[in-house]
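Inputs:
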Amino acid sequence: MRLVSKDLLGIEKLTREEIELILETAQKLHEIHSRDIKKVPTLRGKTVVNLFFEGSTRTRTSFEIAAKRLSADTINFSASSSSLSKSETLIDTARSIGAMLPDVIVVRHNQAGTPEMLSRMVKSSVVNAGDGAHEHPSQALLDLLTVKEKKGRFEGLKVAIVGDIAASRVARSNIYGFTKMGAEVRVAGPPTMLPPHIEQLGCKAYTNVREAVVDADVIMMLRIQMERHSKLLFPSIREYSRLYCLTPEILDLAKENAVIMHPGPINRDVEISSEIADGPYSVILEQVTNGVAVRMAILYLLAGQRSN
Amino acid sequence: MRLVSKDLLGIEKLTREEIELILETAQKLHEIHSRDIKKVPTLRGKTVVNLFFEGSTRTRTSFEIAAKRLSADTINFSASSSSLSKSETLIDTARSIGAMLPDVIVVRHNQAGTPEMLSRMVKSSVVNAGDGAHEHPSQALLDLLTVKEKKGRFEGLKVAIVGDIAASRVARSNIYGFTKMGAEVRVAGPPTMLPPHIEQLGCKAYTNVREAVVDADVIMMLRIQMERHSKLLFPSIREYSRLYCLTPEILDLAKENAVIMHPGPINRDVEISSEIADGPYSVILEQVTNGVAVRMAILYLLAGQRSN
Amino acid sequence: MRLVSKDLLGIEKLTREEIELILETAQKLHEIHSRDIKKVPTLRGKTVVNLFFEGSTRTRTSFEIAAKRLSADTINFSASSSSLSKSETLIDTARSIGAMLPDVIVVRHNQAGTPEMLSRMVKSSVVNAGDGAHEHPSQALLDLLTVKEKKGRFEGLKVAIVGDIAASRVARSNIYGFTKMGAEVRVAGPPTMLPPHIEQLGCKAYTNVREAVVDADVIMMLRIQMERHSKLLFPSIREYSRLYCLTPEILDLAKENAVIMHPGPINRDVEISSEIADGPYSVILEQVTNGVAVRMAILYLLAGQRSN
């Protein structure tokens, strides 16, 4: 089985079978991590360009390690947005990169839709590494992989996603992903952080985190972009944290053995108490480890298998 | 046949035979791009340092992809110029990099002559990736390769180069290159952008772009560094564009099937109308693709062949 | 024989035998530099992350070249310190990097103790590439290697280290290193630059550089961080240089054939006269070359040998 598209632009467009394929491939590739030589020659001679218009060393590093473990060549292209006409620069940059004939372009941009536009302009496979508040599919896939490993299934799981839902591409991609896999998704956040029609994506919205978390199997806390807009959307960090921080008391409402997730980096005691972040139910570091495996799977399925 | 010098500092110092050697080597290496595994082991164990004192992600990326397709190791060294004594830092940095014994140093610097100074201080081969308003030889070689592919010859071709001739290392390198290969070169730009003795390089200078373009086989539009000095050299961008932008009307003066070139990134509708940039005669993206092949040839001829 | 620790955090913790092992390994690996293919497959499939919280392109480049000559994959992670809570970002970043399972993390940070903290949080081997004013072990090891090559022994050598002793991690690591190897170490600098209890490290302290240099076999001049604190610690650069710059006249007090060292980059005629820096006794560039060999030895001993 193969992915239908040459690109991975979002979870919305994937079928359940494609998601399962990526997760199974990641689980197989995961085994490479435990070897002494953590490398396979699968993508030898393939070129992966990391085209990041937004700084994100962690995601870029994860993709770079994934590519190198598959023996691909990697090129980092950090584009600044300092020129006069940003959109022209983007089109021009994208076409130029495409003309250098890389096999995969991993792109992050603060404007939703950029990866899709890019995918129409180049022959390379395009992987969306986060576009505005739209999608961040590799993050959702690593979250799915982590839940699959911990719970063994998705069907019937209750997944609570808490924080700035409206601004979060992680939330959107995970809503698509978990609902497609048969889980029940609830989102919770301050009214100012809940987009108006979010329930149309198949989830249930709450302003009270306690209601969202009752009987949850999975709790995913989102990062608050404190530097960006916190002041506009709620009175203060203290206020946010008092209402929405994941504390032991709130965690008690969830199922026993609920899995605690966070895409990182954490604002300790803002979104999640240190006690829980470092506690036995937190899978935050497993998410990071799974991130490399999932990105290996994505690169392999797009660049390794399609050219056969 | 081999290149005479251990370095590639400019087109001015190359013989016609050396240029032909580079272009032929590039054409052979070009074939690698169409393979599934775009990689040959020719430079395995060689180290290429990209030493960029001026930001240029596109050129750096092109050299990096070229080096990796030849299996060389690449190191990016972006030197800031923030220290007290810039020239001392440069000398010191250059010597230190040289003492790490790389095989090739690709250098870009905003001061003309830096690559030559560097070449005297290190045993490594030095490739000039652009020095001030002096030379940008790999750009001219990729332009020559593109014209060779499109026209099959240089002898007797009329080549018009239009824009800020005085500030353009691309113009200088191309004037040297095309005249050596037997083409007739015309340059055109506002009087403030034409250096006084430019015709001594063997070209003819025009202030009227229409005259320069008449019967041209090749039209090369230069990038206007709008952020840098446009205000000093002409009244406004609008004024420049009204007089020097390549429009369909001006293009009509050239030969049918004239080849349209631009080193990128383009300022659309300033130097060149979008219609033409994206039209059938534009070879702008082929230039980018050829850039990788030409840089592979340069690295191969300097680091792969000389050590035999 | 192997290194006892999984990490290289400082010279203070190494035994004399471990230092000898590193130097001998470096001398063996040094031979690779003279080959046409400067690469061995020793660390194929290993991942080395360069985690630099402080800019240092030279040290990073040296580690990167060292890793690539051993066929390791390298990832550069330059962490800015722009976030709200720096210490949290560091812990979070370190754990995340660790969760990507690299074999070695090379870390530089402006706070002493950061590499040690990191080493307790990750399974990877941690190499200290400079932490505040604490240690810079790979620098001391390359200095030791250079002296070993030039003098053939350490026992009984007189080593003078001159400059801002208090702020210098290079000085501290070298004091530990040379005294462990049986040399006599003298440090010299303005009273404001001599830490109060420095002699407890086993060296003798002088405020008069002439006394420190008498009969010296090795003179190591430290870099003055002019941008940082020079104004606080002495009246002017001119004043510092008049008293502490290594001139031919001062050099005359040392042994004939004294070896002149500097960790670079040099402030010419501030710490050392150009005449001496470029003269026959200067081994400054050999230090840089040896830096690659020593870092290859460190990476090999931590990542190549321990996993057997």
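The longest helix of chain C spans residues 284-304. Flag for discussion at group meeting.
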